[in-house]
């Protein structure tokens, strides 16, 4: 309630405020029903090699096909799912479905086709006592080799909680890889990269935005590129893979390649899409390889 938020933090009443689009209580029940009803679906966004646009991985992004509200984006329900704890069963679904789909692609197109599949994982899931068992079961049931799975975690997720470190080391012990998502935006601590078994960093979109602007060699351009360059050097030194996120045009590709990035993701390289469209891309790639 407003009172619990403390003195001076009274919330102004606005009409309809008592019926927000997704009140936690309502959403909790709704999410549970939606999970059982199979209303959550995954889209997959290509992760590509910048040099030749080859599809080398996919990020799984959840969508809610709500019977009345239509397609609901993750930012409209993930925070509430985290608060209510429903992210645990939802995250389990995302993990299992990603593994199942990735294993199917692997079976159809072989080991050379798609290197990795990346679901997002919330910190709340890491605190669930069954998390490591869930990961183990998702791999065993799907038959996906562990090194094909990359769990995307935000920096703040990794920072919080003492148990998290142990859980991440256990997951790493299964052979699964870990990526720091939105890298550079969190409560970044470089020591994180040493303390946790991280294999990959994803340069946040905010550092890709505008990286192509400005006259070459000017101070302004250098400033825009500084973070991307620094993250690239850091990754090299620590032997981490990098993915540049949110690439929206060819000039950004060119700049990022110049700064040493070899792998990227973004609308310019492929929107989040249905699994069937990824299958079609993989089939096209296989055909091109056979013809070459
Ligand atoms: P994220 O993990 O950083 O995912 C990238 C987001 O950026 C996706 O938004 C993607 O559609 C969007 N994006 C990719 N390329 C571009 C681009 O070139 N331009 C722009 N403007 N956007 C681009 P989406 O699917 O709406 O997901 C938003 C966030 O929701 C994700 O950010 C992730 O933090 C969270 N999320 C999505 N799916 C899941 C999930 O299954 N579990 C959890 N815990 N979080 C999820
Ligand atoms: Mg992500
Ligand atoms: Mg990201
Ligand atoms: Mg992001």
Essential attributes:
binds magnesium ion; 292 residues; 9 strands; five-stranded mixed β-sheet; binds ligand C2E; alpha/beta
Taken from the alpha-carbon principal axes, the silhouette is globular
From N to C, what is the helix and strand string?
A: HEEEHHEHHEHHEHEHHEHEH
- Structural classification: alpha/beta
Average pLDDT across residues?
Answer: 88
State the helix count. Answer: 12
**In whole angstroms, how far apart are the ends?**
65 Å
Strand content: 15-25%
- Taking all Cα atoms into account, the compactness measure Rg is 20 Å
For the secondary structure, the number of strands is 9
Q: Uncertain segments of ≥5 residues (pLDDT<50)?
A: 1-20
Ligands (ions, cofactors included): ligand C2E, magnesium ion
Secondary structure: helix percent? 40-55%
Explain this structure.
The longest helix has 23 residues, at 87-109. Helices cover 45% and strands 17% of the residues. Residues 1-20 have low confidence and may be disordered. A hairpin with a 3-residue loop joins strand 2 and strand 3. The protein starts with 23 loop residues before the first helix and ends with a helix. The protein is α/β, with parallel strands linked by helices. The strands form two sheets. Strands 1, 2, 3, 4 and 9 form a five-stranded mixed sheet that branches. A four-stranded parallel sheet has the order 5-6-7-8. The chain is built from twelve helices and nine strands. Bound molecules: ligand C2E and magnesium ion (3 copies). One magnesium ion binds at residues 181-182, 202, 245.
